[in-house]
Fold each of these.
Amino acid sequence: MKKQKGFSLIELLIVVAIILIIAAIAIPNLLKSRIAANEASAVGSVRTLNTGQVTYDNLCQVYSPSILALNTGGGCAAAAQIIDPALATGTKSGYNLDTGTPGTTPAGTNTTTFDVHAVPTTAGVSGNRSFCSNQAGSGDPRQCCWRCLRPAACWSRDGSGQLTSCPFGSLWI
């Protein structure tokens, strides 16, 4: 009788078990790395939008009313193509991006302020923190979080009514 060559069932099960153990260790680290990469991309996007607003103001003497206007010019032909069309969509690397001009005049222009926000598309999955900036380039993170896209959910209040924490972990850039 000929002796068969090959692997026994036990040997194959041991190899599969080792692969599953390695995968169980690697997948959570991969997810954390993806969130960190998304957050780094959001910071870069906020900085790009901040620079775009300053450039738009230099060219048009008003801040851009929207993220799309930073790409199309929004009534100011000199300001067309300040940002990439992909960034002008408002979504990048798991973050929703927004820029606006709070306190806009009735004519629709604003020469004094702008805000830039980056909020995770799905908190805890695409990112853990929100990011924002304004015309000053720095400031109070409570103000940033308070102006986020979901202001009712931003701050919790303690018994005295004081703002205590921001669950999104907003960072002022």
Amino acid sequence: MNYDGTTYSGLSKHNKTAGNIYHSDVKTYINGESIFSYNIGGYSLAEVNALRKIVRENMTIEVISSNDENLVKLDHSSSTNKHDNTKQNAKKYTNRGNTVKVSIPTFKVTLNGTTMDSEYNKYPCIVYNDITYFPMTYDYSRFLGLKANWYEHTKRDARGVLFIGVCHRDERQLKLNTITTTKKNKRHYTANLADYGLLINRLGYHDLINNKEEDYPILNFRGITYFPLTWKYAVDEFGWKYAFDNEYGLSIDCADPFKPVIDDTPIGFSMPHLPKERYVYGDDFYLVIPHSVYAPVANLVYRKRGEEERVYNITDQLYNGKYAVVYLNMEKFFTDDGAVGFKESTPVIDGNILSLKCKGYKREDDPKEPISEEILMKIDLDTGQILSEEIAE
């Protein structure tokens, strides 16, 4: 690394494996883009998955093992922007004991105006229990405006976790690229229930799908994860336009999904961490709330159906407010023995006013021993301005 005319190299001196997380106003930039990082004992620690997203156009990142330490190898000799590990990794976690009978659809399947071939497609749509299932390959998912990211090592599930969510607009593919075969598909096959961690538009432990209890479970066919195009997923989760009739078959338009792009990199964290955002969904809106003031940028994101996203950077307002707000969207509770704790709260929207409970303390308190308070914050969603901060009653 070259900085200010001095060259720095090597990992032995600067390799840091553990430490306390401290608040810092230092911002980290890679290739000119801001990247979330922690201050651990004087070292800035960035996430490999977040780094991969920024440098994916000109660099491959590989986690290697050396002397029992996990190191990061940056390979400048190759270039890729595809990380389709779904088949290679999820396949080995598939429960071969839970098989179901599936069929190749005889009706037409149209996605964003493009008809999907079923006869000679290596990864065709399949039908199970009268519901059409779609293959989550890299190309197919990006055509639907989705990302399917596999995390091999995670605390959420020892078998690995597959996250499916909306991708950024510049990551979508406008053309449906299919892999064809010379052998025509048969009418009937068997598929397996996916037996690994599954998260769809959610990040929490409690959000992992109990696939065995689903009426339309997520399947694995030919080593690829298939998810059902039910109303629950197609409309409720991704906000697509969805129609089916006997004449035109299944038609899905996913040009403008009404969901935020979720940063799924915390799934792969192998250390204790703070979530960066909390996601709140309503029938006609969604809201992304920054979790704490420890992030370099605290963005409040609000979108109403039929409108564009509004992104408000409320960092300066949080630092200069009447109270030192530490965590947003948290409310006080009392344990059975009378101790005070804080848990995630439910925000309230009345018109254009967001009422949000937070954890913080008065700025005149001793910073070494602050008294935690439940603070009620009100924010104007039309302007992003914090209107008031008061101790909750």
